[in-house]
Design brief:
The chain is an alpha/beta fold. It folds into 2 domains: 46 residues, no CATH class; 219 residues, Vaccinia Virus protein VP39 (Rossmann fold, 3-Layer(aba) Sandwich), CATH 3.40.50. 40% of the residues lie in helices and 16% in strands. It is built from 11 helices and 7 strands. A 7-stranded mixed β-sheet has the order 3-2-1-4-5-7-6.
């Protein structure tokens, strides 16, 4: 039997074929599949229960990651992510601020030191102490940590950040949850500011497998692009470092941001250069 994630993926593929000679076949089957998907989402309580993760769920997941960090650590991926972050942390940032959504225990927080103020929003208040400990006392006065219930970050001023970053967080969100976050980010980010966000792309088998087992939530590249465009952003780049490491870079229209991002391939350092 098809899973709901596989059904949704098939719906997207059928939509992409609209306008071809298979139009009638597509229309007939697309309507049936959409009705089935809506029915499952609306009435299958097991499915609904796993969509929005709870604070307790995130705590258990973080505890598991902490206890298994030696086996799940991916130094190459971390280096790729932080090299990408560095492209946004060049000259002109001395008076700019950044926001990280869902930093967890602070896996990438030190890569954000190029910014003046660093805002963090996290559902788990216990992460604050672990993040602050990664910085010397003099630098801690530049950190702002906020516990959020869902997507709201009202304490972060309007148009205050020129860079928003999130890794290993948005794949756990439903598309509705992502849409809410993108709207609030739009308030926080200044015109011309960028976002760099990790997301699930279930067009790939590895990502689809995570959604089918209920760990991630269903999303695709085309859906993510539409969510961003509907929220008023320009999509700059959509790519992946490896399976399950898909990212999107987007920009809020405007020219207040002093940093200009260019899509370039950054080579990793050779072993002798490390």
């Amino acid at each position: 039997m098809l899973s709901i994630e596989e059904v949704k993926l098939l719906i997207e593929k059928l939509k992409a074929l609209k306008g071809t000679d298979f139009q009638k076949l597509i229309d007939d089957n697309l309507k049936t599949l959409q009705e089935f998907a809506y029915s499952v989402d609306a009435y299958n309580t097991r499915q609904i229960a796993r969509l929005d993760k709870t604070r307790n769920w995130f705590q258990q997941d973080l505890d598991w990651r902490e206890s298994h960090q030696d086996s799940i650590l991916d130094q190459l991926l971390d280096k790729q992510i932080e090299l990408k972050i560095n492209q946004f942390g060049k000259m002109g940032n001395d008076l700019q601020n950044c926001l990280e959504i869902g930093p967890g225990n602070g896996r990438h927080v030190l890569a954000l030191r190029a910014w003046r103020l660093m805002f963090f929003t996290e559902v788990l208040a216990s992460c604050k102490e672990k993040i602050f400990k990664k910085f010397p006392p003099a630098h801690q006065r530049l950190l702002r940590f906020y516990t959020t219930d869902r997507t709201a970050c009202p304490d972060i001023p309007n148009n205050s950040c020129n860079f928003v970053f999130s890794w290993d967080t948005f794949p756990f969100f439903t598309q509705e949850h992502i849409a809410e976050y993108l709207r609030d980010i739009h308030r926080v980010i200044l015109p011309g500011g960028y976002g760099f966000i990790h997301y699930a792309d279930c067009d790939y088998d590895a990502d689809l497998a995570e959604a089918k087992r209920g760990y991630w939530n269903y999303n695709t590249k085309s859906s993510m692009k539409k969510l961003l465009q509907d929220a008023g952003y320009d999509v700059i780049e959509m790519d992946q470092f490896r399976p399950r490491a898909n990212y999107v870079i987007f920009k809020k229209p405007g020219n207040t941001n002093p940093v200009l991002y260019k899509v370039v391939e950054i080579p990793l350092p050779r072993d002798e250069e490390k």
